[in-house]
From TrEMBL:
Keywords: Coiled coil, Endosome, Golgi apparatus, Lipid transport, Repeat, Transport
Cellular localization per UniProt: Golgi apparatus, trans-Golgi network; Recycling endosome
Biased composition (Pro residues): 35-49
Encoding gene (name): RELCH
Record protein name field: LisH domain and HEAT repeat-containing protein KIAA1468
Source organism: Sparus aurata (Gilthead sea bream)
Length: 1099
């Protein structure tokens, strides 16, 4: 049987006919494919020799089949009785030679399906030249011809293995597709032409060195032969490849620029039609390795070593320059066989290791039977039948097997680890979940991660979150969405709040690593649901923070309205910690997003102002102060981002220079932010940039104005007037509303700076608050000085800066307001609100005393009266030293005023001193002054003075010192009640009686000694009852009940002493008496509201 020639690129008979001179009848060269080995061939075994063992079996193929052909030829030369086996490569060659193309194609397909691709068939069907048809020209002599002439070309593309039969329909309408196929074919032909030209250039480059010079180099080894262009391009390619592999990217770029005539991405550009040589590292490692002697081993399955042949055989072979394409095929064949041998070597090595492990116990054993040894070793008590035994006996030997082993073992390990130490498993779980190849196992591991700890604490949750973020960074958005989010969704309604808290925190931590569509839809919906439904404060707090993070990454402008509603919903949360998180995280992030959208000034702030105005319109009969606080606090948190927008859109922004001597920002320049996200420097980018912008900002306001500064003009012309108009509509008696707006304007003015406050804010307030008596004409509607605008301007704008000129301006404003309101007989509520708000800060006590002293020495008695009443508001917050040094002297001065109304106005302030001060000397001075009012004959007929004293005693008596109450208040009330019995004017009598009733009702809640009870309290009640019998019978019933209970109290004093101090009102015995007392109290119409307040007082 003829063997296939290993060095012939084609086994056709035509090629054999072209080379008749290369062979002889008796001997053939190895390139011939003779039917048998030639005589004298050293590889021809003797007749009695055993058939040599082939290195490769017949089913192991090579790219062109030549590697086995020698072995097949050698085998065919054995004894005729030996059964020969035909190689699949020989069959393939025969099919191609005989032009059974379709059979060969079917054979090729079956081999592919069996996983045994034959390189000869693969190369044949991948070569377009085997299927070309030249129109109008006869085929070349070396073209493969079938029985019917040249082979027809495939319809769509030039290779059979790339036919796309699905592209054509059965009707044959494929003109456009054939045009594409023709273009593809022409492109391939052009590339092949380029390759042929490159090969010609390569040969030309090889022959550039003259032959004489080569002889000189060979005769003189010390003279190095100059590098050829081809060698230079090949070395350049290898050097560039080395630089890229070892991260010398800049060097590689420079090297490529210096050799711009060469394409370093394509090896074919070098010009060699041979495979790319090994890289530089491999060449370096192999350069010093000595090659084995050719005589040591002979691989009959690869090639014949001509050095081992006899001389006459070599002489008979005509010398011929080897064909480059043949050498290329040989090299490829050898490399392929080397790879096959290496794979086989690796497989055999693994089998050897396995056998060594299995035979470990037999190495040192005696010469015993394997059955006996196995029975003997069975006493070693090893268990490989169980799950754990199987895992222990099978040691992982690769990364993938390690991941598979961890995936199997971790679900069994986790339940047996202490809860307090389970966070130690987090790295192991995450690493396995990242690298495990099975999706179901990854899902189970992430489920274990989220259920690792029953109720994770803060530190454990932080560790799990850190791991989730690391997982997200490693696997990318797609797997985060598919693997992590379902775990969060499963636990959104978990019974433990710590687990729901982990879900809420995970949504925020994973937000940067999720697809934007999921971020603004699914995750946002999850958090919205938790915010509305979760009952745990800490969970809702985490939800709000995560929502803030989501707002920092959202880019869907359609979600603005949803974000706004979420802000209002979270601000209305009953938990303070949730509301705090809204101001710290959510509102700054939401404001940053609206700034990017350009809707901060056009939508967000106007929406809040509109809600405040609507609230004020609806609250004419009762303002919802909580909602007002919600809206106003949100507006206050938007001040820093609003100022940042003003700076970033200013005319000077482009002129801001960071380098150079930039002064540091004063510590008190801005109010202390609630969080870093509300720090203007953080919003701008850096403190250096903010400092540079502030310098230009102040200069622009002071010297260049606001022309063309749209963002600031909006603040001045739209925001400020609307805010001032809102301020004028709030109730001045609501201290909460006044305080809220005062803090807002204070932060607003401090943020926008002193120049802005002086030039933009104050002028607008002063335009409205024109201090004249016309502005307090209530009948004419000019009552602006009686509204909340006065206290908010005084406490929110004029207190922003505390320098001398600012304090003088505040003092002057308060003095003018006090004078104007007094002379106009207008309500003093706006002035009182200013004093209450300022009096809460000790810094302004001296300033307020200065304003009051101005009123004390004023020429108008009306102003002096107002000053005296203002002392009552100031006494409670001022320390006793100031009271003794400044307040009491001023009140004593007023108590001797020529005007009786001024003297009467001091009584409430004196009473407040008795209620709050503990210094005995001070109390004695006040006691003496009050005694002069009661005992001086000139005041005996002063009805208004008596009314004020009784009202003051009822207010301060329960909280005053017991000695002062027993020795001064109750005896004088007794005298006033007794004197009222003889009052001739009925209107005055009923006024005094009503006031005495309220005072006694308040004092009845106090502990009163038996002596004072008998001598003053009961006699005073009896005198009052005598008045009420004639003037108000409903009051008389209550007084009779009070007297009866007091008498019982005195009679049972011993029992009362054992029970301790108790009030008369609470010691009523008998359910009937209690019911009658309370029902009568509820029937009162003249003083029912005041009595309700009285009984709420505490000691």
């Amino acid at each position: 049987m003829a063997s296939v020639n290993p060095f012939n690129l084609s086994d056709s008979e035509e090629e054999a006919e072209r080379r008749p001179n290369e062979t002889v009848d008796t001997e053939r060269t190895p390139s011939d494919g003779a039917p048998g080995p030639p005589p004298g061939n050293p590889f021809s075994p003797p007749a009695d020799a055993e058939p040599p063992t082939l290195l490769l079996s017949s089913n192991r193929t090579s790219p062109s089949g030549e590697g086995i052909s020698v072995s097949v030829a050698a085998t065919s030369a054995m004894a005729g009785s030996a059964e020969t086996r035909v190689s699949v490569d020989v069959i393939a060659a025969q099919l191609i030679r005989d032009q059974y193309i379709l059979t060969a194609l079917e054979f090729h397909t079956e081999l592919l399906e069996a996983g045994r691709e034959l390189p000869r068939l693969r190369d044949y069907f991948s070569n377009p030249g085997n299927f070309e048809r030249q129109s109008g020209t006869p085929p070349a002599k070396d073209q493969v011809l079938g029985p019917g002439g040249p082979l027809n070309r495939a319809g769509s593309i030039s290779t059979l293995d790339s036919l796309d039969f699905a592209r054509y329909s059965d009707d044959g309408n494929r003109e456009s597709d054939e045009r594409v196929a023709v273009l593809e074919f022409e492109l391939r032909k052009a590339k092949e032409t380029i390759q042929a030209l490159r090969a010609n250039l390569t040969q030309a480059a090889e022959s550039e060195v003259p032959s004489q010079e080569r002889k000189n180099f060979k005769s003189s080894p010390e003279i190095q032969e100059p590098i050829r262009p081809l060698e230079k391009r090949a070395l350049n390619f290898l050097v560039n490849e080395y630089l890229l592999k070892n991260e010398y990217k800049l060097s590689s770029i420079t090297f490529s620029d210096e050799n711009d005539d060469q394409d370093f991405e394509l090896w074919d550009d070098v010009g060699l039609n041979i495979p790319k040589p090994p890289d530089l590292l491999q060449l370096y490692r192999n350069c010093g390795t000595p090659l084995p002697s050719p005589r040591d081993t002979v691989d009959v399955s690869v090639e014949v070593n001509f050095g081992d042949l006899p001389g006459n055989c070599i002489a008979q072979v005509p010398l011929k320059k080897p064909d480059l394409s043949q050498q290329t095929e040989v090299v490829q064949e050898l490399e392929y066989q080397i790879s096959l041998l290496n794979n086989e070597k690796q497989s055999l090595a693994e089998q050897i290791k396995k056998l060594q492990r299995n035979n470990l116990y037999y190495n040192n054993a005696l010469k015993l039977s394997p059955a006996f040894l196995q029975a003997l070793l069975s006493f070693c008590r090893m268990c490989s039948d169980s799950r754990l035994g199987a895992e222990v006996s099978r040691i992982a030997d690769s990364e993938e097997s390690v991941m598979l082993m961890l995936g199997r073992c971790l679900p069994h390990i986790v339940p047996n680890v202490l809860l307090a130490k389970r966070e130690e498993l987090i790295p192991l779980i995450l690493c396995t979940a990242c690298l495990h190849p099975e999706p179901k196992e990854r899902d189970q591991l992430l489920h274990i991660l989220f259920n690792l700890i029953k109720r994770p604490d803060d530190e454990q949750r932080q560790m799990i979150l850190t791991g989730c973020v690391a997982f997200a960074r490693h696997v990318g958005p797609t797997r985060v969405e598919a693997e992590l989010l379902p775990q969060c969704w499963e636990q959104i309604n978990h019974k433990y709040p710590e687990r729901r808290l982990l879900v809420a925190e995970s949504c925020g931590a994973l937000a940067p690593y999720l697809p934007k569509e999921i971020r603004s839809s699914l995750v946002l919906s999850m958090l919205q649901q938790m915010l509305a439904e979760d009952k745990a404060d800490m969970v809702r707090e985490a939800v709000v923070k995560s929502l803030g993070i989501i707002m920092g990454y959202i880019d869907d402008s359609d979600k603005y309205s949803q974000g706004f509603e979420l802000m209002l919903l979270s601000l209305s949360d009953p938990s303070e910690r949730v509301v705090s998180a809204v101001h710290q995280v959510f509102i700054p992030a939401f404001a940053a997003w609206t700034t990017e959208l350009g809707t901060l000034q056009t939508a967000l702030i106007p929406s809040l102002l509109a809600r405040i105005e609507k609230l004020l319109m609806q609250g004419e009969h009762g303002l919802d102060e909580h909602k007002l606080h919600v809206f106003l606090s949100a507006l206050q948190s938007l001040i820093p981002p609003l100022f940042a927008v003003v700076l970033q859109n200013a005319p000077f922004t482009s002129r801001a220079i960071l380098h150079g001597d930039i002064p540091a920002i004063e510590v008190t320049r801005f109010p202390r932010p609630a969080s870093p996200l509300q720090d203007v420097a953080t919003i701008i980018g850096s403190r250096e940039m903010l400092s540079a912008l502030l310098l230009l900002y102040d200069h622009q306001l002071e010297h260049e104005g606001t022309t063309g500064w749209e963002s600031l003009l909006w603040v001045v012309n739209q925001l400020l007037p609307q805010l001032i108009e809102i301020v004028g509509r709030i109730n001045v008696t609501s201290s909460t509303c006044v305080h809220e707006f005062s803090r807002f304007f204070w932060r607003f003015c401090r943020t926008f700076g002193k120049i802005f406050t002086n030039t933009k804010v104050k002028p607008q307030f002063q335009e409205i608050l024109r201090l004249s008596e016309e502005n307090v004409d209530v009948s004419a509607g000019n009552d602006i000085l009686t509204k909340a605008t006065v206290p908010i301007y005084a406490t929110g704008v004029l207190t922003c800066y505390n320098q001398e000129e600012d304090r003088k301006l505040l003092v002057g404003f308060l003095e003018d307001v006090m004078t104007t309101l007094s002379l106009s007989h207008a309500p003093l509520d706006s002035l009182k609100a200013s004093f209450v708000e300022l009096g809460a800060n000790p810094v302004y006590h001296e300033l307020l005393l200065t304003v009051l002293w101005y009123g004390v020495v004023h020429t108008s008695a009306l102003v002096r009266c107002t000053a005296a009443r203002m002392f009552e508001l100031l006494v409670k917050g001022v320390n006793e030293t100031l009271v003794a040094q400044r307040v009491v002297p001023a009140l004593i001065t007023l108590s001797s005023d020529p005007e009786i109304s001024v003297r009467i106005s001091t009584i409430p302030a004196f009473g407040t001193i008795m209620e709050t001060v503990t210094q005995k000397e001070l109390l004695e001075r006040v006691k003496m002054q009050l005694a002069s009012f009661l005992e001086d004959p000139q005041y005996q007929d002063q009805h208004s003075l008596h009314m004020e004293i009784i009202r003051t005693f009822g207010r301060v008596g329960p909280n005053a010192e017991p000695r002062f109450r027993d020795e001064f208040v109750l005896p004088h009330l007794h005298k006033l009640a007794l004197g009222n019995n003889s009052q001739a004017v009925e209107s005055k009598r009923i006024d005094i009686a009503t006031q005495l009733f309220e005072a006694y009702s308040a004092l009845s809640c106090c502990f009163i000694s038996e002596e004072v009870m008998v001598n003053h309290f009961l006699p005073g009640l009896r005198c009052l009852r005598a008045d009420m019998e004639q003037l108000s019978p409903e009051h008389e019933v209550i007084l009779s009940s009070m007297i009866k209970e007091c008498e019982i109290k005195v009679e049972n004093r011993g029992m009362a002493d054992a029970q301790g101090s108790m009030s008369i009102a609470s010691s009523l015995v008998g359910e009937d008496a209690k019911t009658k007392f309370l029902s009568k109290m509820g029937q009162l119409t003249t003083s029912g509201a005041m009595l309700a307040n009285v009984f709420q007082r505490k000691k």
